[in-house]
Every structure is written in structure tokens, then in C-alpha cells.
Known about the structure:
Layout: E1 26-29, H1 35-42, E2 51-54, H2 63-69, E3 75-80, H3 83-89, E4 97-102, H4 104-107
Parallel strand pairs: 1-2, 2-3, 3-4
Amino acid sequence: MALGRYIGVGIVRPPLEWTPRFRLYQVRLMRTPRFSMLSWLRSTSMENLKTISFRDGPGRDLNPLMGAIGPGLRSLRLMSYSLHASAILAYCTKMEEFEILYSPAVNAL
């Protein structure tokens, strides 16, 4: 399946009976979907997924998913930094790039 550079999709619930025929290299999330949706998205992309961006920080319920994909990530982008974000970083053992889009401590300067 040939995919364009960007895919804009809004899925209410994952079509669990359908296995994705694509492999994702990068995922950019404006809202964090449920664990089941992210698990479905990454089901065929474990080796390929290298970059993930979260506008809303991933909640603790995504820790198992981050534990699974974190070791293969090269780039992690978060909207803001928090104590939970530091815990997520521990999963990303091969990371080459970490980007924070908003840091209250820096903006206060």
C-alpha cells in the first residue's frame, strides 16, 4: 500500500478485526487515543516506529505501550515536561532526539 507523506485520520474506535497493512515510521498525536487504539496502530510498526510526538502527554495507562516501543524510538517529542515525562524517558534507551515544546521554567525567565 503506497502511503503519502502524511496521513490525517480520525478513528473513533480501532477496527480490531482489521490488521493494519501499513508500517509507521512516525506518529504525531494531537490527542492521546486509548491504549487499545495505540496498540492497534503499533501492531505492525514495532520495528519501524522511530519517532513519536504527543501534544497531550501520555498518561500512566500508556506505560506498557511506551515500555514496548520506547527501546526502538530515536525521537520523542512532548508538549511539556513533567515527572511522568521523565519516567517515559527511561524507556527510550536508543533516543537521539528529545524535544519539549513548552517548559514553564524556561518561559518564566
